[in-house]
Design goal:
The protein has about 350 residues and is an alpha/beta fold. It has 15 helices and seven strands. A seven-stranded mixed sheet has the order 3-2-1-4-5-7-6, with helices on both faces. About 45% of the residues are buried. The chain binds S-adenosylmethionine. The site of S-adenosylmethionine has 20 residues, from helix 2 and strand 2.
Length: about 350
């Protein structure tokens, strides 16, 4: 079904292929729980919207109905090359597409002519171990590399250009808003003075020199939040998450009236800025009526379009964090499509003004 779908995803001749099943690729975060939530007993389409190295995708294919097809999306062409090799065993049941998940989900028919019922969608946000562990990608403070930070280096501007372009107040706001950095003003001043800053090593050094002494000796590198802010900005990460949630919810298949399960969405976020829009969108879609409690009858006419499958955000247990420290900050939320609403209803509700979230963690 997916064979004719996609271009640009598979590595060309001579490009590196990692052997399928290689141990070099990191354990997917909360793999068993994500699989239990999303593996589908019914044939249809599973969308791994952040396929990365294909770890979750493999687990989902292994545990789903044997006729399930999988569409893997990633902005990072290197990740797709690895996923392509690791998912080769599933042949034409898998298609990969190079693109941003919000754009692909909003126009799915452009890449899959006849998507059929969408049984599950996974968003495992942020950067991959592959990106973090490849020194020349410049995603990690552990390695000195060109200061780029783009997941798709063919789009947008690298972090070094952004640093060059912003004035000090703009940079302060960026570090405060996207890095939640307490020392944003001091760091912004130092960065502006030290420009041009073209490498991760230079950035780390300038930030370490700008923060007060105690902040230099904390458990994390003092430039971690600056790095996060620049990465979120150059990739437009939060905007894309917000933009992806309405079409993702709208795409989920309604349960068959004769019985069966509604399509499911699961999102793994790694910090509160990323988790907040997910929590709000799912809570809104699950809430239904938003009338003030003192109204005798409902005037808004809204009904829940999904039910929440997670209570608050689920976190990895200590054993997983010990095995895979990058899972430490993960928060998993999931929801299942309810019967009896059209896709457009779901879309409009998911994108509608947001009431306050329910009092869950
Ligand atoms: C945490 S990794 C996913 C790892 C994957 N679940 C696995 O098992 O290997 C996140 C991936 O999402 C990709 N990504 C992040 N934002 C994206 C976006 N807006 N559109 C498409 N891909 C995105 C990144 O390039 C990265 O490869």
């Amino acid at each position: 079904m997916l064979a004719a779908a996609l271009g640009g995803a598979t590595p060309g001749p001579g490009e590196p292929h990692e052997p399928a099943g290689s141990d070099a690729v990191h354990e997917p975060v909360l793999r068993d729980r994500v699989t239990a939530l999303l593996a589908t007993p019914d044939p249809g389409l599973v969308i791994d919207a952040t396929v990365g190295a294909g770890g979750h995708a493999r687990a989902l294919l292994e545990a789903s109905h044997p006729e399930t097809t999988l569409l893997g999306i990633d902005r990072d062409a290197d990740a797709l090359a690895v996923a392509d090799a690791r998912l080769a065993d599933w042949g034409e049941r898998v298609a990969l597409v190079h693109g941003a998940f919000d754009e692909v989900l909003a126009d799915l028919e452009a890449v899959v002519a006849d998507p059929g019922p969408v049984r599950a969608i996974l968003l495992d946000l942020g950067v991959s171990s592959l990106q973090l562990d490849t020194p020349e990608r410049g995603f990690s403070l552990r390695f000195d590399a060109p200061l780029d930070l783009r997941m798709d280096p063919s789009q947008g501007e690298p972090a070094r250009a952004l640093l060059e372009r912003l004035d000090e107040p703009e940079l302060t706001a960026l570090l405060r808003d996207l890095g939640e950095e307490r020392h944003a003003r001091r760091i912004a001043r130092a960065l502006v003075r030290a420009r041009p800053i073209t490498t991760t090593g230079a950035l780390a050094e300038v930030v370490a020199g700008a923060v007060p002494t105690p902040a230099r000796h904390g458990p994390r590198h003092p430039a971690t939040r600056t790095f996060q802010a620049l990465r979120l900005a150059v990739n437009g990460e939060l905007e894309r998450v917000r933009a992806a949630l309405p079409p993702a919810l709208a795409r989920l298949a309604a349960p068959d009236p004769a019985g069966g399960r509604g399509g499911r969405l699961a999102v793994l976020a790694y910090h509160s800025l990323e988790d907040r829009p997910v929590k709000r969108a799912l809570a809104t879609a699950a809430q239904g009526c938003v009338c003030p409690p003192d109204l005798p009858v409902c005037g808004c006419g809204r009904t829940p379009t999904v039910r929440l499958l997670t209570r608050g955000a689920e976190r990895p247990d200590d054993a997983e964090v010990a095995r895979n420290p990058r899972a430490r900050s993960a928060r998993l939320r999931a929801a299942e499509r309810l019967p009896d609403t059209s896709s457009s209803d779901v879309a409009s509700r998911a994108g509608a003004p947001q009431p306050p979230p329910p009092p869950t963690a």
